[in-house]
Amino acid sequence: MKKGSAKWTVLTVIMAILMVVSIVAIPVTNMFANAINVTLGAKTQEIVPEEGASVYFVSNYENVDDLVAFEKQLCRDIESEGAALLINRENTLPLAAGTKFTPFSQSSFNLLYGGTGSGQVSADDAITLKNAIDTVFGADSVNPDQWKFYATAGYKRVNAATTGGNQGQYRINEVPWAKYTDALKKTWANYGDVALVVLARSGGEGADLPSGLPELEEFMTDGDYLRLCKEEVEMFEQLEQLKKDGTFKKIVVLLNSSNTLQLDFVDKYGIDAVLWIGDVGMTGALGVADILAGNVNPSGRIVDTFLKDNHSSPAMQNFGAYDWTNGADYGVATAQNNTDPGIDKCNQDYVVYQEGIYVGYRYYETRYEDYVLNQGNAGDYVYTNDVAFPFGYGLSYTTFEYSNFSVKENQNDFTVKVDVKNTGSVDGKHTVQIYFQSPYTQYDIDNLVEKAAVEICGFDKKMIKAGDTETFTITVEKEDLTSYDHMNAKTYILEDGDYYFTVGKNAHDAVNNILAAKGADASRMTEAGNASLAQKWTNDTFDKTTYAVSSVTGKPITNLFDDADLNKYAGNGGQTVTYLTRHDWVGTFPTTQSLHITPEMWADGLTHEESGRKAIVEKMKAALYADATMPKMAVAGDLDAADLAMADVDDPRYLELVSEIPYTEMTNLIYNGFHLTQPVPSINLPGTNDENGPQGFTKSLTGGASAMAYTSEDVMAATYNLELVHNMGLCIGEDFLHVEDASGTPYSGIYGPGANIHRTPYSGRNFEYYSEDGWVAGRISAAEVMGIQDRGVYVFTKHFALNDQEEGRYGIATWSNEQAIRELYLEGFEGSIVKGGGMGVMSSFNRLGVTWSGAHHGLMTGILRDEWGMKGAAITDCSVFAKYMDYRFGVLAGQDLWDGHGSGMATLDGLDNDPAIVTGVQRAVKNIVYSITHSHAMNVGKATIRVITPWWQKLLYTLAGLFTLGTIASAVMMVRAKKAAKEEA
Amino acid sequence: MKKIAAVLLTAVMAISMVACGGNGGSSTPAGNKETKAAETQGAQEESKTYQFEGKFEEQGEYASMLNNAFLLNLNADGTAVCDKYAFAKYDASDAETNPTYTQSYLSGTWKAVEKDGVPCLQIKLSYKDASGNESNATTSYAYDVAGEYSFDMSYPVTPGQAYTRTAAMTGKEGTIYADDNAFIQAYKQEFEAPASVGTFVDAENNVTAYLQDGGVMLIYSGYDKFAEGKWANGADGITITLNDAAVEVTKDGNAASFKVTRTMGDFTNEYTLTCADVTALPKAE
Fold it and tell me: Of the candidates A532, A514, A373, which has an alpha carbon nearest to the alpha carbon of residue A455?
């Protein structure tokens, strides 16, 4: 008997412990419910569509196979129109049918299809180079033994890890020449028409490319990833000899990278042709083969300046993450990723954009002009020492001639015309590039307004048959000729003086045309320009009013980024920067900047102490919300989100709709936007899924039926074909339309495109960005965004803004002047939103000055809403654990949605009685609701959105209940057993 | 009454077993692991088997969430099964009951093919949830390089989303590990406490403050570091600083203690850490 009661006693204790554990687990796991749901893929909503609902967005493809087939061709077309022919000695290309190739470099086997990180694409179904060439040139066109050699040699590129990665992890890993066996060499003669060399360099999220790491010197020349390594040099030396010996007839090089290699070797080693192909995407290798075969006449024009010396740019003097000299005094952290220690603390780094506007061709062409004109202390500048191929360069298999160039002024724009004749024997597409030059005046010198020698301001592309002439008519907006005067007028100005327009084959050709028109000393020029292709326009009036108001909203435009300019920031502690000026090139050429944290910097934005952050919040409230009154919340109402589907952004019902939502539902929506949005039951707003990325919505990452991995963004831009890019946008939208998750939740938002610029060749994510030129980025992104959103998918163009490197990105303090910010770094985003109608942006990890981008009111509200009229949601970059991306800062500044989970940083909790915070929260929610109600998520109509308890919570509740019952039952049995034992005794 | 109680208890035990049993399955030798996939795509007779291993590892305070090792078996019946071991959670217990070991995290098929004329292994994997819904499908090709095969395996950190990481997998024909437990033993990690000259401990809650030479104090809850502060042992005795603020230290003879809180969302725990003998601590200003 005693044994019996002991047994029940033990069981009772066990049940009781399990009961307590399961009951305690309920509130604990609730804290992390969203994170757990995401991790487990647990269903949290059930959408019951309205019967007979309006379907706002319908796929244009009844058959997914048709969509897939179209996309495969589209990717091939983008590559074939974006790849740029750089060298073609003795018309090596195109190659004849029956050409036999021997590929060289392990990268010929491991072709680069895209970058790594969130923008990665799946190479699973990608067309290999061999497959592409065999398809186009015929079976057995590629040396099979060489192909097998590379497949089994064991040499492969190594990239830096996405998180926790560092530059030191990169490896080129080219096969040493000694590994090529005699037996293999004997096969070369049979495939000796072309030695096809692929030079690939991969970029990715999380780490920039090494540009001179001593610890990498045994693996790459001078520790520089973008230089030929010794194995590649030896390979070229051997190929040169083999060509002389007659083993190979031609040497053709494919530059397979969005990070431009240092091209100091292309005139050596007997290289016959060089084709830049970027990252080719899933079927782009076929486009490359099409070019090699002459099936497509190459028409791509490079969107970066390709250099002989990658370190020659002024930006390279301040590229990287520089440690505050006194960071230790403030306990700053080295955090580079969300999982690094100290992610909740201030980042230890800063970077200074000392070069100002002189990035890429703006530097090289401007300094060249000043050298020619013998002004600006340009020094003994030798352009050809630095530049291999200028911005906009690209050859064709035919030739084109320009004539009858004319510019006609209209009220708000110019009509630029030029006739283009195809003087060759092959049909071909041609891109006309229009450049302008703004006068560099004494006013500019006095007020630190910098002017590039040329800027691209218009382009168009057409097919021109051999022998035919086409007239190109391009509109150039006067607004694009303005400069930002951040010192005196503090707005956009159109100065009086002589402007020049020109049509140039590239940016350098454009400058030479203008120099010729000015009568410059030809002996100092690299080549004679064509004055007939340049036209002067004299502006009589200094205009500082017309462009001082937004053409979109009518609101005034004035300085918003004084706090990002070290020279103007009140708390600089006497630290200033001398920006590079064309008035004194040699005297102001950038040098590495050394900065320390001042108490003001700490208080204004760097602080990681809660007391400091609270003080910032109070300052923001006082400055921005002094007159805020408490909005209404949780008001009973009849409006559903579906009632506002496709409604105008100013529809007054939005206010009523948002006021129906309780505070906790609003914060739940704002907090938890990690690749999704939460359902909002009070207004029947369905939850959605959001996904990457800039190269398209790639199926294998999420399991969608279709989904194409397109080329890198620079190849897209290099097509200069807006129709092609627009079609790609439509297809990306179609891919999203064709996917939903297991719960029926649609994918309705894309984290992309990327619109930062290529400040240097070494940024890890250059493959996700279009160009070194922000204006081109803006035009291309507009075309893409219009296509994507046409299919009911809202965009988050990223990363807004000045996220032009990976090193130190988590909170690095980025210093720049407002002219450069507006004219270079914001232009891509402006195009996406103003021209493309882009609904949203993704703010960036970095700080502008000392203020995190999402907390910068000038950026998130002044620019996005007041100047550009953006209508939808601004999401953060991944905010998991990143406490510096404080919710309070963000909602007060204009940030709407956080790409993370609220766990551990839910700083809006308990502030539902704060008028400023609630005002910001409601504004944020409205913007999020706008995006969703203008997407195909509304195809469900006035659906019933049932928030359901995820399975793991149900299980937990069930267990808690069962353990409770078990405890009671065994306790009863224990008591009965003891009673029985007592009675027996 | 007795019978009702017994039935209830039986039900509770049964359900608990199912809930806690993970993916279940018998412990089979690694080379003959059965697939958990709902279907095999193009399963075919293959007399050979292969086994691959690999891992993703990064350094960082929360990296334990992402750090995983993978054991991939290509079975004779053409199925492919990939287990996942979260080694950074420091649990090397039996695979059958180890909560950090996920059997069949990814599954699919494999076959020997020729790609562009080169023999290789085509490995198709995907994540399948409890309902059999498939996501994150990948196709990889592994080539024979002197008897070793390798490929980069993209796996979902968050199934169903494009939040993925890449593990470099290497393998060979036959087996590397006799079974799951051998794999676990090969990849297990031992928690290394940070170097310290002394500690304050809350034994009940498994929280430890490590006092390091140089005045740094690291506070761990289990294996997770959640706070960092400073300590000193000067003329006035032991002082503790957290978040740049002095923390009250209570003395009781040679012992001393202080309190620290850890907040996760709205949930806050307070711990009392005690050092039994502060006189044994080195003097440090």
Answer: A514
Mean pLDDT for the stretch of residues B2-30? 39
Collect all residues of chain A within an 8 Å Cβ-Cβ radius of residue B56: 161
Which of B60, B138, B159 is opposite residue A164, by nearest beta carbon? B60
Query: What pLDDT score was predicted for residue B21?
Result: 29
Exposed/middle/buried for residue A608 (C-beta within 10 Å: 0-12, 13-18, 19+): buried
* Ranges in chain A, pLDDT < 70: 1-4, 31-32, 34-35, 38-41, 43, 118-123, 163-164, 339, 341, 698-707, 742, 903-904
Q: Enumerate the residues of chain A whose CB falls inside 8 A of the CB of residue B138.
A: 122, 124, 700
Q: Is B135's CB within 8 Å of A161's CB?
A: no
Q: Which residue of A has its CA nearest to B224?
A: A341
Fold for A82-296, please state it: Rossmann fold (3.40.50)
pLDDT for the residue numbered B156:
84
Cα dihedral value B14, B19, B23, B28, nearest 10: -40
- Which strands, in side-by-side order, build the sheet including A194-201? A84-88, A273-276, A250-257, A194-201, A101-104
Name the residue with tokens 């290999």. Answer: A128
pLDDT of residue A943: 75
What is the C-alpha to C-alpha distance for residues A394 and A391, in angstroms, rounded to an integer?
9
In this predicted model, what pLDDT tens digit does every residue of A385-413 receive, in sequence order?
A: 999 999 999 999 999 999 999 999 999 99
Tokens 């949203």 belong to which residue? Answer: A840
Task: Identify the pLDDT of residue A628.
Answer: 96
Burial (CB count <10 Å: 0-12, 13-18, 19+), residue B205: middle
Strands of the A322-323 sheet, one edge to the other: A322-323, A349-352, A813-815, A847-848, A851-852
Q: What is the pLDDT of residue B41?
A: 33
B59, B145, B267: residue with CB nearest A164: B59
Return phi, psi of residue B161, to 5°: -125, 170
Which residue, B123, B153, B187, sits at the end of a domain?
A: B187
- State the pLDDT at residue A10: 87
Question: Are B116 and A38 in contact (CB < 8 Å)?
Answer: no
Q: What is the pLDDT of residue A331?
A: 85
Which amino acid is present at A458? G
| Dist CA A566 CA A817 (whole Å) | 8
Q: Tell whether the model's pLDDT for residue B27 goes beyond 50.
A: no
pLDDT (0 to 100) of residue B24: 28
Q: Which of A28, A962, A965 to mutate to test the interface with B (most CBs of B within 10 A)?
A: A962
**Looking at residue B132, what is its pLDDT?**
80
Q: Where are the domains of chain A?
A: 2-44+951-984, 82-296, 361-558, 664-947
CATH topology of domain A664-947: TIM Barrel (3.20.20)
Among residues A506, A508, A497, the alpha carbon closest in space to that of A536 is found at A497
Mark yes or no for CB contact A339/B61 under 8 Å. yes
| Greater pLDDT, B235 or A615 | A615
Q: Is A701 on the interface with B (CB under 8 A)?
A: yes
Q: Does A361-558 carry CATH code 2.60.40.10?
A: yes
> In 3D, which of A677, A647, A681, A574 has the Cα closest to residue A937?
A677
